[in-house]
Design brief:
The structure holds 2 protein chains of 2 kinds. By secondary structure, chain A is mostly helical. Chain A has a domain of 41 residues: Orthogonal Bundle (Histone, subunit A). Chain A contains 3 helices and 2 strands. Chain A has a two-stranded antiparallel sheet. Chain A starts with a helix and ends in a 7-residue tail after the last strand. Chain B has an 11-stranded mixed β-sheet with strand order 1-3-2-4-6-5-10-11-9-7-8, sandwiched between helices. The longest helix of chain B has 21 residues. At the A-B interface, helix 1, helix 2 and helix 3 of A face helix 9, helix 10, helix 11, helix 12 and helix 13 of B. Chain A: InterPro entries: Asp/Glu-ADT_sf_sub_c (IPR036113), GatC (IPR003837).
Amino acid sequence: MRIDVEHVAKLARLGLTDEEKKLFGPQLSAILGYAENLNQLSTGNVLPTSHAIPIKNVLREDKVIPCANVDDIMANAPDEADHMFRVPRIVE
Amino acid sequence: MINKSAHELHSLLSSKRVSSLELTEAVFARIDQVEDKVKAYITLTKEEALRQARAADARLKAGNNITPLTGLPVAVKDNMCTQGVLTTCGSKILNNYLPPYDATIVAGLKSAGAVIIGKANMDEFAMGSSTENSALYPTRNPWDLTTVPGGSSGGSAAAVAADEAVLALGSDTGGSIRQPAAFCGVVGMKPTYGRVSRFGLVAFASSLDQIGPLTKDVTDAALILGQIAGADPKDATSADRPVPDFMAHLETGLKGKRIGVIRELDLNQCNKEVAQCFEANLALLREEGAEIVELSIANIPHAIATYYVIAPCEASSNLGRYDGIRYGLRAENTHNLQEVYEESREQGFGPEVKLRILLGTFALSAGYYDAYYLKAQQVQNRIRAQYQAAFAQVDAIASPVSPTTAFKLGEKMDDPLQMYLSDAFTIPANLAGIPGISVPAGFGANNLPIGLQLLGKHFDEARLLGIARGFERALNLSLPNLAI
């Protein structure tokens, strides 16, 4: 199977070097080719697993919990102003 | 003293024959001696560790609120958030990340009075089987520095093997605790999915990830599991189940235990020495009164393909959060938001992580979802049901941990699929959500350790640990000298 690496990278918002584009094509084909073994199995009505253990909704009271470490959170921001994350202009 | 097990040291600490400060200083002296060669850690937190050791000594002196972890030096894998302490996940994209909070497991260690030595090296985002995918540097196997320690919890395993920590925490998505434990000659346990809170564990594949201990022996693993298990309101997938006393059945022996061997597991893919070791291990289990039962997990041959669809799909979604906006690396000289995303991710992620993001993105993309992701989830359900049926017949299932002993650095780096295939024995436990443990089982050529894997049924860790302990006691393996 041939994979359009550049298209998939675009979907993933992932930049790739030219070298990576060349490298990943054959690697992806090999791995996906291997994964295609699964299609030999007839799985008919088998339900897909989302978790191997029964998982149920966990509900709790909708209660405001104070967040005391806003400064610590914002300290990790690459670009911050007045407790806000700054990004390049998104509207012209 | 630093080569002693946690339970031995616990009794030395409780009886005041050793102080936590002495022990912690001895561990750091050992680190000064060997860390240049092993590279088990990304970050060492010596000052804070010495402070924690003094606090533990005060607690031990006062004689109240002492836990099995009080005063013990622990290594924490670098994908568990530690408040104010660098948490890189082995990635450049998090090379400056200071978590504003502690993972539940880290908070638990602290309140138990453990001493956190540092953050252990790992494959980037826990993706890998050799720790060579760390963006910082590879860790080396203390038994032979030219070989890998396994991965992705390679730093945790190497730290325990090299006495750079008394015990360690790792995480296991497809074998990342058990395989490095086997390669490094220590015990490694992946508990049942949900047994230990994942809050603050950097997510790789959320439905498969589980935190567990790497220790010097099975007793230590039982001891630590008792400390870290339990429901957590901050992790909705953590199991709301009582935590049994994992020490209670530890010495019950092997007599009458039924141990399954999977018919479909292809032992021909194992090195001769691993296959021979496994045969000898089964013979020993028999001698000790266990019954070996052949059983079928028909879809075992499809486990790797299933895993390498599901795990990258989840990863591609989980790793979407690394976009250069709120934390982590942001590319410079970008002109718009799209470029911020693409270039930050291009610069921040290493090749294996990129490959898996692409794999997952492709498998989830329009037109391919049913053929890959849905199909894999169906096969996963079958595998899970087959294990469930098998555990109606047996108490545990045995296999090798890895088809080989530790391989050379660089040996498998050019061929990801070959690296993936080496996870054949460990992956099924994650797909089935069941607990598994790797126990030192012998040594191959060049003194490289071999592990035995034992799997148990959901939430049956107590029985599994008892069988593992029975095996460990019967084998009574004497360890050769480390290469360092």
